[in-house]
């Protein structure tokens, strides 16, 4: 708990593994010019290390952006929200991408929660955008 902004750096790329608790269309957000069309919005993938837990306050949000969806489509891969939900939900994955501090969600994170907003993430930090992902055969070793 506490100030989260200085914990990491947006100048860092990361590789993260976790269990996919959910995959869904992201909200209408500034980062996508407030687009309402689901294809023009990010895909939120919620990762956890505790597959049997329903505590969203422990989820790490990693995101596929519309631009990366287009890049991987040119390689013949389908990173649409529908395909990712079908292929990833309930599986262990590893993602690589860039760190982003998504300050629009400070009220919704366990680390920075204030007031009565709903908590649905562990931290404001995200992997955004994801630049690669792969399904793991088994949970990663800790």
Would you give an account of this structure?
This protein is mainly beta. The chain contains two helices and five strands, in the order βββααββ.
Rounded mean pLDDT score = 89
What portion of residues belong to β-strands? 25-35%
**Spans of at least 5 consecutive residues with low confidence:** none
Strand order in the largest sheet: 3-2-1-4-5
- Give the total of beta strands: 5
Task: Report helical residue fraction.
Answer: 10-25%
What pattern of helices and strands is seen along the backbone?
A: EEEHHEE
Q: Terminal Cα separation, in Å?
A: 22 Å
Rg: 15 Å
Largest sheet: 5 strands, antiparallel
Based on Cα principal axes, name the global outline.
globular
Total DSSP helices: 2
Which structural class do the helices and strands define? mainly beta
Keywords:
5 strands, mainly beta, five-stranded antiparallel β-sheet, 142 residues
How are the secondary structure elements laid out?
Layout: E1 13-25, E2 43-48, E3 60-64, H1 66-73, H2 81-88, E4 92-101, E5 125-135
Antiparallel strand pairs: 1-2, 1-4, 2-3, 4-5
Describe what is shown at a glance:
The chain is mainly β and 142 residues long. The protein has helices spanning 66-73, 81-88; strands at residues 13-25, 43-48, 60-64, 92-101, 125-135.
């Amino acid at each position: 708990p506490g100030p989260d902004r200085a914990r990491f750096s947006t100048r860092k790329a990361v590789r993260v593994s976790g269990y996919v608790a959910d995959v869904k269309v992201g909200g209408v957000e500034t980062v996508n010019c407030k687009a309402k069309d689901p294809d023009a919005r990010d895909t939120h993938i919620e990762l956890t290390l505790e597959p049997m837990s329903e505590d969203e306050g422990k989820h790490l949000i990693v995101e596929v952006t519309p631009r990366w969806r287009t890049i991987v489509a040119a390689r013949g891969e389908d990173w649409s929200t529908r395909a990712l939900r079908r292929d990833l939900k309930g599986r262990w994955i590893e993602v690589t991408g860039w760190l982003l501090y998504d300050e629009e969600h400070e009220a919704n994170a366990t680390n920075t929660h204030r007031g009565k907003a709903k908590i649905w993430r562990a931290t404001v930090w995200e992997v955004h955008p994801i630049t690669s992902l792969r399904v793991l055969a088994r949970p990663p070793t800790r």
